Amino acid sequence: MKNLNYEKNIKIDEKDALIIVDMQNDFLPGGSLPVEDGDLIIEEINMTAKKFKKSGGFVVLTQDWHPKNHLSFASNHQGRNPGDEFMSEDGAIGPVLWPDHCVQNTKGAEFHKNLKLDLSDKIIQKGMNPNVDSYSGFQDNDKKSETGLRDYLESINIKRIFVCGLALDYCCYYTAMDGVDFGYEVYFLVDLTRGIDVPEGNIKNALENMINKDIKFANKVSFK
Ligand SMILES: [Zn+2]
Fold first, then answer.
1. pTM above 0.90?
2. Predicted confidence (pLDDT) per residue in 26-79, tens digit
3. Separation of CA 53 and ligand 1 centre (Å)
4. DSSP letters of 16-33?
């Protein structure tokens, strides 16, 4: 992505964690909520994960993991369709409704077969409460309960997190923003994400908000 300032000479060490967000079949081409070209980032994510492991860093996967009756699904609202605008009063669901996706124990919820799971230190699941969505890898959308990611990162003394995966303007974005609020130095690996841009302009807004939040951007040439 152009017009972003990329950091240079980043040296990964044991205080760094790569957060790979939701690289699951339903978010990839052929899935129920596919992110265009999402499959094109898998190989580079694997290589980046390898680099983290080699340098003493950690690798965490997040996994969207919904019950069938999850209220983010349009199918659970009478007369609503995927993509319809919908915002619950407490901010727990919305701003749009989604097709059924990442239902627990289905093929769609599994990680893509090419993602190297053996490089990961931890899997954090989210979105299990049917009444609340969890875009962020850290916490539910209503900010009332956490996923365990922060506890895990604290337990291994992580100071910097590097966010990649799907989708840029939802789960990656919210994970990065919460990362700052929870006191981490946050890097967004923008080339290792793809966005959905729903509603239109959403990617641009997400990038602007992250710039204003002092999130740093990195790509593969950023690393030593
Ligand atoms: Zn979801």
1. yes
2. 999 999 999 999 999 999 999 999 999 999 999 999 999 999 999 999 999 999
3. 28
4. EEEEEE--BGGGSTTSSS
CA of 176 to the centre of ligand 1 (A): 17
Residue 98's SS3 state is strand
Residue 171 a catalytic site member: yes
Cα(134) to centroid of ligand 1, in Å?
Answer: 7
164 belongs to the catalytic site: no
Locate 57 and state its tokens. 């860093």
Homologous superfamily in CATH for domain 16-66+105-222: Isochorismatase-like (3.40.50.850)
Give the burial string for 19-28 (b: 16+ CB within 10 Å, else e). bbbbbbbbbb
Q: How far is CA 14 from CA 19, 53, 144, 163, in A?
A: 14, 9, 30, 16
Verify whether residue 144 is a known catalytic residue. Answer: no
pLDDT in tens, 115-149: 999 999 999 999 999 999 999 999 999 999 999 99
Q: Residue 101 has which token pair?
A: 């996706």
**Could you tell me how many residues make up the chain?**
224
Selecting among 171, 172, 191, 216, the annotated active-site residue is 171
